[in-house]
């Protein structure tokens, strides 16, 4: 298939253009026992915003001689450039102001390199930026399922100004309101150890939450030893009432610190060994003016703060909880 000047339009019932791709040129081809290639350029329009994209993707050996799709042994070379491209994904309206993404791999069942530099607006919010330069030792299993392995990720990912409100619909039934309980935006900065091991750090920051992880990777065992996992958050009274049916006079302060956290490498099948997780954690939750449900309505409790210690050595042998 070799489109030349092809255009597609999506229209409202009144005939106005909602989304369109115009002047598409390039090629799309695939063959059993050969490569799959997609090379397309086009101008775009979405809700009146005009833009353009350039996609080049080659998957070497994606289809076996009998036509079945393969993961093991398939190479990938993908590059995408977009300017002012709008679209809807997962029910969210998005617009990429400027974006470049490249993915390369000699075998997508093995190491994959990803680079990205994207500025995008979600549901009309101020644009967020995402930069990534990572290498992943193994992302896919031979059957195409995802492999979860913290030790397999190397490089850095940074995201700034990611709005929370557009994603509120996905957690609304839990009682969490992201803009209220997390903050209007979230920033992420993650640095992963290289293939020879070394330190890793992850931080997530917002108006009402600050989380960080610091540790290292053992290159021999691929296990992660996390020196510190910390979370500080301000919990709105409405959230506590929704989740625990408790009333407080002021926003509660949550402080959680876990030390000596041991995370084993993913199993050969890509599964995450939760039962081997080890940690020692302490949690403090302030509860100013605490009231709980009682027979005659809300009952005040003389509890200023809740202090807990939690230990697993490992999870498979049970989790112990102690209250101070």
The helix/strand order is EEEEEEEEEHEEEEHEEEEEE
Terminal residue distance: 70 Å
> What would you call the structural class?
mainly beta
- The low-confidence runs, each spanning 5 or more residues with pLDDT under 50, are none
The DSSP helix count reads: 2
What is the residue-mean pLDDT, rounded to a whole number? 88
Search tags:
324 residues, mainly beta, 17-stranded antiparallel β-sheet, two-stranded antiparallel sheet, 57% strand
Give your account of this protein's structure.
The protein has 324 residues and is mainly β. It has helices at residues 178-181, 237-244; strands spanning 4-11, 17-30, 36-46, 49-60, 75-89, 92-105, 112-122, 128-136, 153-163, 185-192, 198-206, 209-217, 224-235, 252-263, 278-286, 291-294, 297-300, 305-312, 319-323. Helices cover 4% and strands 57% of the residues. The strands form two sheets. The protein has a 17-stranded antiparallel sheet. The longest helix has 8 residues, at 237-244. It is globular and about 75 Å long.
